Amino acid sequence: MSHSAAARTPWPVHIDANGVVLNGDLSVSAEARGLVVFVHGSGSSRQSPRNRAVADVLRQAGLAALLLDLLSQDEERTDAVTAEFRFDIPFLANRAMVAVDWATTQPLMELLPIGLFGASTGAAAALIVAADRPSVVRAVVSRGGRPDLAGDALDRVTAPTLFVVGGRDEVVLELNRQALARLRGERQLVVVPHATHLFEEPGALDQVARLATEWFVGHLAR
User: Fold this and answer.
1) Rounded to whole angstroms, what are the CA distances from 97 to 64, 141, 173, 208, 212?
2) What's the Cα-to-Cα distance from 80 to each of 58, 76, 77, 84, rounded to whole Å?
3) How far apart are CA 70 and CA 42, in angstroms?
4) Are residues 131 and 97 in contact, defined by beta-carbon separation less than 8 angstroms?
5) Which domains, ranges and CATH numbers included, belong to the chain?
6) pLDDT tens, 107-144?
7) Cα torsion at 178, 152, 91, 163 (round to 10°)?
8) What is the pTM of this model?
9) Is residue 93 within 8 Å of residue 125, measured between CB atoms?
10) Beta carbons of 155 and 181 less than 8 angstroms apart
């Protein structure tokens, strides 16, 4: 199998998070210019059609991608009923931090600059990781995120950060504007016109994927 083919074909990985196994799908090749770790607030991030669509575009641009379930299967079943984990931002951030630290010890990835792609409450978790691992996390993209939930960590984020929000997602858009003003590094807010929170409108997710890829290639490529 060629390196380029390997980059497009994800394989399963299992990460030990203090005794809980996190399942992920990883695609990386020897030519990868950076690694993007997906940080999702709820539901199976690995299986999310939206995340997979973005990951495909990232891979075509020469970036490695790690799609990750931050919750175990038992936790996911519980969260589907109670929603107790998806808003536990420190919990999600800790899980994402375990995955980032794991990646820095793995062959093919240990020297790659890392970016984080966060969606919904996962964006807040990604920003906390960026604040706590400033020398490792080199870029962040938030899709319809809730960066306001990152709290005081916002004031410590120095990684270049892109917020992408739907123009019709008005409450979240205002929260993103307020959060953006608190970041210390390079930062940008892009509004996708007529899009709602999940970017389900025709072409909306394509715009997200293109914006995210341009941001990561610009800030991660060695």
Assistant:
1) 18, 16, 26, 24, 21
2) 29, 6, 5, 9
3) 8
4) no
5) 3-220 (3.40.50.1820)
6) 889 999 999 999 999 999 999 999 999 999 999 999 99
7) 30
8) 0.94
9) yes
10) no
